[in-house]
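Researcher: I'm preparing a figure for a lab meeting and need a structural model of a single chain. I don't have an experimental structure, so a prediction will have to do for now. The sequence is pasted below. Please return the structure as tokens so I can convert it later.
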Amino acid sequence: MSTAVDDPEDQTRHSVFAQGLQELGWTIGRNLRIDYRWGAGSSDNARKYAAELAALAPDVMLASGFVALAALQQTSPTIPVVFVNVIDPVSGGFIESLARPGGNATGFVLFEYTITGKLVELLKQIAPRVTRAAILSDMRTASGSGQLGAIQSATSQLGVEFHPVGVRDAKQIERGITDFARGSNGGLIVTGTTQARDHRDLIIGLAARHRLPAVYSNRLFVEAGGLISYGASTIDPLRRAAGYVDRILKGEKAADMPVQAPTKYELVINLKTAKMLGLTIPSSLMTTADEVIE
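Model: Understood. Here is the structure written out token by token.
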């Protein structure tokens, strides 16, 4: 796991994964053993724990997130790996193609780039006066560039100025949002990055301080006080991953199993935050929301 041991969603992920395997005939303690390690977003931790897991000679490994997948592939390029919640594994060099991964890894991507443009549409729906958008993204990665490209296309079509903000660390995030907030009619879009997730309390606090309507790619932000999120479920891939693990345990090769796109997206709205910002949520969004936090 790329997350920390106390990540608010991890216990649910583990339960869903284990339940999926049990439905396929694999029961922990009877014919299945699962060993967990948490990297907490650290590449050094990930490499250390990947080596520990590989030394156990498992039949298959599960990697949640980019950092975990990179560590497992570098440590053991032969043990089969099923990955979940990874952005653009082709550009990352983990697989040859989505249809035929080759190598030892296959799994489930976090989202398709075109979906990222939906965040701009949501920002304009929820805050029509927005004419400028700060985009928080990791511009050092191929996935960050891909997300920025999709958002830039959407902003140009909707007449919104595009302002990239890096997420390397807390100082860069705070400086970027504070500088951007000096202008008027601004809004915030937070793309899917590990750094943004790790600094979500800071980002949510800055959005509130500067009264910036913000759209996030992960529901965790909204549960922590953010305004609205739209993105693929990070839990559903664990259920689907159980099926791939089952197939590998029964003899199939990861190289021949296509990487799959998300099938479940979630729209979550925080009404308390909307009220604080003086925003009225359109009825069209209220009726389509998967969850409304009051």
